[in-house]
Amino acid sequence: MLYGALEAGGTKMVCAIGDETGKIYEQVSIPTTTPDETMPEIISYFRDKGIEAIGIACFGPIDLDRKSETYGFITSTPKTAWKKFNIVGYVEKALGIPVGFDTDVNGSLLGEITYGCAQGLTDAIYLTIGTGIGGGVMTNGKLLHGMMHPELGHVIIAKRSDDKGQCVCPYHDSCLEGLAAGPSIEKRWGRSAKELTDDAAVWELEADYIGTALVNYCMTLSPQKIILGGGVMHQMQLFPLIRRVFKEKMAGYINTKTLENLDEYIVPASLNDDQGIMGAIKLAIDAKTELL
Ligand code: ADP
Ligand code: ZN
């Protein structure tokens, strides 16, 4: 059986066709401009592909409350053309097949849970550190939506006194995204994160902020694994530094067997940056199964 997957991002829309094993047969990328321009291109890609359902892992904030009148809408995004756009309704109407829908980061987490490094787990977190910071959460075997959906990038953490940079979040004086996402690194050090690989001070500070946030997530959500993805996490030297900060700041308060091996607890994404699109396949499978 074939399924469609749409990883809807603020800069590009990745469209793919796959099957229930997570195998991706083909994939294209369409620039995200305006709904009027971008959506017809997406639909014409998926039409006549013989897909049974489609999953959308979407940038947000989005409305995931099925009882809400605006379920399936992108809500208050700074990308104004997409504000209040009913992406689920549009795709459902155009293709006439079941549509699964969740956040981009819940999609990536679902990909890792279904096909990747978190298989068999019921509680896990996927954090992406790129242009922004966002996190997907699974608790007790279900993707967490709650009132809306978690916004792990905007947890408030203290700016370090020796940090000469600024929190670049327009909402918060001192939040994780504002202190540690790619644009913040670039602003603080005057060069793009990619060009700073050899500067130890950059990654020591970065790991301090990320490690602190992970302690907070561990305390509040009790995940069995934390997966870190996104452009910034391609700097693999961050992993041991983050684990060290995590251990120091945890200070032995939680000492489960799982936390004894932090190499297996705080891990890189495992699906070659296909975790989002593979998660969207699973959203499609689940949308189809729900109707059976
Ligand atoms: P997006 O978040 O827009 O989906 P990415 O996850 O690639 O895309 O994140 C882009 C951000 O990550 C940019 O700020 C960029 O500077 C940073 N980045 C991308 N690749 C790397 C890398 N190899 N090392 C460090 N930072 C990177
Ligand atoms: Zn913020």
TrEMBL record:
Keywords: ATP-binding, Carbohydrate metabolism, Kinase, Magnesium, Metal-binding, Nucleotide-binding, Transferase, Zinc. The keyword Electron transport does not apply. It is an enzyme of class 2 (transferase). It holds the Pfam family ROK. One of its GO terms (molecular function) is ATP binding. Its cofactor is Mg(2+). SUPFAM superfamilies: Actin-like ATPase domain. Gene3D superfamilies: 3.30.420.40. Its EC number is 2.7.1.4. It comes from the Bacteria. It catalyses: D-fructose + ATP = D-fructose 6-phosphate + ADP + H(+). Coiled coil: none annotated. The keyword Kinase applies. Belongs to the ROK (NagC/XylR) family. This is fructokinase. The lineage of its organism: Bacteria, Bacillati, Bacillota, Clostridia, Lachnospirales.
